[in-house]
Amino acid sequence: MSVTSAKGLHPRTQAVHHGTRRSQYGEMAEAIFLTQGFVYDSAEQAEARFQGTGDDEFIYARYGNPTSRMFEDRIAALEGTEDAFATASGMAAVNGAMFSMCAPGDHVVAARALFGSCLYVLDLLAKFGVEVSYVDGTDLDQWRAALRPGTRAVFFESVSNPGLEVIDLKSVADMAHAVGATVVVDNVFATPVFSRAVDQGADVIVYSATKHIDGGGRALAGVICGTRDYIRNTVEPYLKHTGGAISPFHSWIMLNGLATMDLRVRAQADSALTIARALQDHPGLSRVIYPGLPDHPQHDLAMAQMGSGGTMIAVEVAGGKDAAFAALDRLRIIRISNNLGDAKSIVTHPATTTHQRLSDEAKAHLGITPGLLRISIGLEDAQDLIDDLTGALAG
Ligand SMILES: *Cc1c(COP(=O)(O)O)cnc(C)c1O
């Protein structure tokens, strides 16, 4: 097996080549090692393998797999971390990152504006004796007040779902590191393309690869990026024994996704800015929330932290739920669904779908009003999307 390194080259080159493992056949495309197990030449070799595997040795697909290792190596290179561990879904990654490092009695500080399933994982940690404090992620004073010597970890989405609040990663990381806490960032909305999370102080970066890494809404996957010690000695034992393993086939989908991700995500973000500007003064909307617009409360931070407003826009339809639903039902190109980062543009009504389970009070706190729509901008022509949205709003 030969392994291609693109270390030191630009991200777009790494995204195409880094970590490719070629068998003795010299296949051009990354091979799918759709095998659950691996054969040993001798009993002695089997014994040795179970005492510890080298970089290119495998035991069982729940522990690791050559196709998955290619995906892990490639995303780690792009993210700038020493290592990565791929998982069955984004939630297996969040769960693996947090549960593998926490023990009863630990203290975790988390931003309140989180994906519903991330909140579930934190509640589960609390059930097992981890103390979880919640803060308004954009308020640095609240982070300062909640952190204390010995805090085990902080957890937040660098750009929140669906409100698109941008959290000051570097400031939170500095405060967290001052008390010895590990900084865990769910970086889905920032995307690996615009992420500079490692430089800004993140220790662990988690992605739902289901989103921009796949880019076609085909397969679930997740990945945890971090130091080699954390990935191999903390995360790997937890995930290999609890079963959150990624399918080699899904790793192959994600490897192919990475090759085109930079082009896709930049095009989607360019369209998102064009569309946000076009909608900005629309009379049918009471708000257009996009970190790339100068009126976004954390616009300057978003530009410094990511250099882009990203691929997601949130709008508030004037007239509440009825008006929002009427507009949704008139859309012709943008599909009503709940994924994001797809080549196809997708619109979501968070209050009745993804965030349905939250209390009215919690929804209000997170800005999830009855008229709020979250739009994931795809790869269609931006003008067609503007026409679709303005047509739907015009009634
Ligand atoms: C989608 C998503 C997840 C969960 O990912 P899955 O692949 O669906 O398990 C976690 N965090 C954020 C911010 C997400 O958007």
Descriptive report:
With 395 residues, this protein is α/β, with parallel strands linked by helices. The protein folds into two domains: 2-257, Aspartate Aminotransferase, domain 2 (3-Layer(aba) Sandwich), CATH 3.40.640; 263-394, Aspartate Aminotransferase, domain 1, CATH 3.90.1150.10. Helix content is 40%, strand content 15%. The chain contains 14 helices and 14 strands. The protein has helices at 11-17, 43-51, 66-79, 90-99, 116-127, 140-146, 169-178, 191-194, 228-242, 248-279, 299-306, 320-330, 360-365, 382-394, and strands spanning 2-3, 21-22, 83-87, 107-111, 131-135, 153-157, 182-186, 204-208, 222-226, 285-289, 312-317, 335-336, 346-348, 372-376. The strands form three sheets. It has a seven-stranded mixed β-sheet, sandwiched between helices. It has a five-stranded mixed β-sheet with strand order 10-11-14-13-12. Strand 6, helix 7 (169-178) and strand 7 form a beta-alpha-beta unit. Helix 3 packs parallel to helix 10 and helix 10 packs across helix 14. It is globular, with a radius of gyration of 21 Å. The N and C termini lie far apart (60 Å). The model has no long low-confidence stretch (mean pLDDT 96).
Short key terms for the protein model shown above:
395 residues; 15% strand; 2 domains; alpha/beta; Aspartate Aminotransferase, domain 2; binds pyridoxal-5'-phosphate; seven-stranded mixed β-sheet; Aspartate Aminotransferase, domain 1; 14 helices
SSE blueprint and pairings:
Elements: E1 2-3, H1 11-17, E2 21-22, H2 43-51, H3 66-79, E3 83-87, H4 90-99, E4 107-111, H5 116-127, E5 131-135, H6 140-146, E6 153-157, H7 169-178, E7 182-186, H8 191-194, E8 204-208, E9 222-226, H9 228-242, H10 248-279, E10 285-289, H11 299-306, E11 312-317, H12 320-330, E12 335-336, E13 346-348, H13 360-365, E14 372-376, H14 382-394
Parallel strand pairs: 4-5, 4-6, 6-7, 7-8, 12-13
Antiparallel strand pairs: 1-2, 3-9, 8-9, 10-11, 11-14, 13-14
Helix pairs in contact: 1-3, 1-10, 3-10, 4-5, 10-14, 12-14
Bound molecules: pyridoxal-5'-phosphate (PLP).
Residues 89-91, 94, 115, 117-118, 157, 161, 186, 188, 208, 210-211, 220, 222 line the site of pyridoxal-5'-phosphate.
